Amino acid sequence: MCGIVGYVGKARCVEVLMEGLRNLEYRGYDSAGLALQLGGRIETIKRPGRLDNLAEALEERNGHLSAAHTGVGHTRWATHGRPSEANAHPQLGNGGSVAVVHNGIIENFAELKEELKERGVTFSSETDTEVIAHLLAQRVEAGEPLREALASALRRLRGSFAVAAVSAKEPGKVVAARKQSPLVVGQGAGENYLASAVQALLKQTRRFLVVENGEIVELTGSSVGIFTLDGESVERESFEVEWEAEAIELGGYEDYMLKEIHDQPSALRNTLSGRVDSGGAVDLPEVDLAGVERIAVVGCGTAYHAGLLGKEAIERLARIPVEVAVSSEYRYAHLVGDEKTLVVAISQSGETTDTLAAIEAARAFGGRILAVTNTQGSLITREADAVLLTKAGPEIGVAATKTFLAQIAALYLLALGLARAKGATPEEELRELGRDLRRAPEKVEETLGLLEGRVEEAASLFEEARCALFLGRGSSYPVALEGALKLKEISYLPAEGYPAGEMKHGPIALVDEHSPVVAVLGQGLTREKSLSNVEETVARGASVISVARENDSAARRMSRVVLPVPEAPGILDPFVSSVPLQLLAYRVAKGRALDVDKPRNLAKSVTVE
Ligand code: G6P
Q1: Torsional class of 297: left (φ above 0), alpha (ψ -120 to 50), beta (otherwise)
Q2: Considering the domain boundaries, does residue 605 fall inside one?
Q3: Domain count, the chain
Q4: 381 band by pLDDT with thresholds 50, 70 and 90
Q5: 373 lines ligand 1 (CB under 6 A)
Q6: Is residue 319 domain-shared with residue 425, that is, in the same domain?
Q7: Is the pLDDT of residue 609 over 80?
Q8: 407, 438, 469 - which closes a domain
Q9: For 389-448, how does the pLDDT look when each residue is reduced to its tens digit (9 = 90+)?
């Protein structure tokens, strides 16, 4: 949450910082601001609300700020203090001698604020960040060089942070540091960059350095120095990011979410490629699958739903017991496990604080950690013993779509690999499933084609809706949960995902003509059982939307609208059934004229507890 950027180099500072913030806006969009070094002073410009407000304010300054070579920028997801200009970052210390941008939470800010006030400091915001700015300014005023001053200030802080700062006294320099919150350095020619995530800088560079916990970075146009808090220099290898800059373009789509839904076939192709051959044999050299006796899967939001699907596949094929937990619960639970426990931590961003903490908790009992993430070089890749990368490309829309399908693909590969290592399912059966899995991209493509023009009708049933119920059984149940989450996230309609068979123990009380029921039918026994459960809602006046095969006459009879999915092997059901629900949520939100890419109150990457 919150995005930070920094730049030193040429007279295109404003342009690079704004481009970076544009690509980080998914992290928070309550306010935005820049601090720029100009003529021996620091100029700040901040606006509450979306980045567009800041862009307009910059235009009004008629290029006055465009001579800057050095600066920092911020896009905010408010934690301490409501969204306002005063609470926007950068925060200034000592009347503007230093400027600080910050992502994270300073837990002891209240006591530090009291102490600073007693020493005569006046505060102009309600943020926790402002204490960092004043602590830093005091050290700088006392004559410490900026980097050392930052180290001194950081020693006083408890909590999680990534901070970047500039000082009027040291032109052409940006310093930064991190503890828990993410920070990367981008390398250019005669210019260098900082950002919360690599996608901020893809237009500038693909060469990056990671910054580890407790390290300080000093950037000039011609140098990047990484240091410990005690000032010792640290060597760090750079790495090249595989993502292309075009991957963060809209490419003709109206929104990122719609683009990313249509990106799904290629996200799946890339995630499966090289990992399951044409004969269906799975090869995951990155993961040691031997000797696993128990599995815990942790994740938040959409990642948790992917985890539920992983459990079903692993237990069915590998016969290994799997528990699935939301990370924020797992981290404080009374954990049972040992060194034969594999902990699979799923996180698209690789940054989610609760998931990182869940990993730390699992370390305590000796668990082996496998990260399933979409982000190379992210924090989780450095905390885990092994990494299974989903290769969905950067996802910008706050509501996860293509990364969900890529996570399911990665977990199914894992299930097949574990089943083989364990000898729990006959080899030929596993290979057949492997061959089926290879067809996921093609079947998702077919689904997108079938749905063309069909979703609007279903979305129209939500015009008068008060709430919605998403029902499914077996592997359709996590799909229903995810469908309900998508609708909630972007259309703000209360929606509940429930096991179809359990619905009569409570949620059926919600059913009336203003509560559409979305039934994810699946195949075989699951379908038959779900059909009878859904009939019970029809009898109570529900408008039913089914996700079903096009020729499913029972589904047609029962439903106001059928969202069709193609014939596909059972293992592909969650892939094809998820797509109509993503598009349904999208259409309902668009019908309400909402911003689907940046829904209110949410952030794509949640770096606070
Ligand atoms: C936020 C996002 C969700 C995401 C969840 C977990 O809540 O809005 O889309 O599923 O975080 O994020 P992660 O990056 O750990 O997968």
Answers
A1: beta
A2: no
A3: 3
A4: very high
A5: no
A6: yes
A7: no
A8: 438
A9: 999 999 999 999 999 999 999 999 999 999 999 999 999 999 999 999 999 999 999 999
Looking at the chain, the whole-number percentage of residues with pLDDT higher than 70 is: 100
Question: What are the tens digits of pLDDT across the range 207-224?
Answer: 999 999 999 999 999 999
CA dist., res. 337 & res. 531, Å (int): 39
Q: How far is the CA of 138 from the centre of ligand 1 (A)?
A: 38
Q: Could you tell me if the CB of 590 is within 6 A of ligand 1?
A: no
Tell whether the model's pLDDT for residue 522 goes beyond 90: yes
| Contacts of 529 by beta carbon, 8 Å cutoff, 6+ apart | 473, 500, 501
Are 234 and 264 in the same domain? Answer: no
Mean residue pLDDT of the chain comes to 94
476 within ligand 1 shell (Cβ under 6 A): no
Six-digit token pair at 571?
A: 């293992």
Q: Could you list the residue range(s) of the whole structural domain that residue 518 is in?
A: 451-597
For 461-527, give the secondary structure using H, E and C.
CCCCCCCEEEEECCCHHHHHHHHHHHHHHHHCCCEEEEEHHHHHHCHHHHCCCCCCEEEECCCHHHH
List residues with catalytic annotation: 2, 604
Distance (Å) from CA 300 to ligand 1 centroid: 6
Residue 533 included in any domain: yes
Judge whether 609 lies within some domain: no
Nearest ligand 1 atom to the CA of 355 is: 15
- In this structure, the answer to whether residues 228 and 269 fall within a common structural domain is no
State phi, psi for 160 to the nearest 5 degrees: -120, 140
In angstroms, what is the span from residue 457 Cα to ligand 1's centroid? 29
The conformation of residue 27, written as its DSSP 8-state character, comes to: G
| pLDDT grade for 603, boundaries at 50, 70 and 90 | confident
8 A C-beta contact, residue 468 and residue 516: yes
Tell whether 516 and 474 lie within a shared domain.
Answer: yes
- Boundary (domain end) residue, out of 186, 210, 241: 241
Residues 110 and 154 in one domain: yes
The residue whose CA is least distant from atom 7 of ligand 1 is 301
Q: Which atom of ligand 1 is nearest to the CA of 352?
A: 15
Distance CA 14, CA 512 (A): 54
- Burial (CB < 10 A; 0-12, 13-18, 19+), residue 315, is middle
> How many C-beta atoms lie closer than 10 Å to residue 516's C-beta?
29
Please tell me whether residue 540 adopts helix, strand or coil conformation. Answer: coil
Cα separation, 542 vs 536, whole angstroms: 9
pLDDT tens profile 455-502: 999 999 999 999 999 999 999 999 999 999 999 999 999 999 999 999
Query: What CATH code is carried by the domain that includes residue 526?
Result: 3.40.50.10490
Question: Which protein residue has the closest C-alpha to ligand 1 atom 4?
Answer: 301
Residue 602 lies in a domain: no
DSSP 102-125: EEEEETTHHHHHHHHHHTTPPP-S
192 lines ligand 1 (CB under 6 A): no
Residues, the chain: 609
Whether residue 1 is predicted with pLDDT greater than 80 in this model: the reply is: no
Nearest to 484 by CA among 606, 267, 275, 302: 302
> Do residues 349 and 228 share a domain?
no
Q: Round to whole Å and give the CA distance between 328 and 339.
A: 22
Q: Ligand 1 pocket: which of 348, 373, 395, 481 to mutate (most atoms <8 Å of CB)? A: 348
Q: Whose CA is nearest to atom 13 of ligand 1?
A: 347
> In this structure, are 478 and 431 located in the same domain?
no
Q: Are residues 545 and 432 in the same domain?
A: no
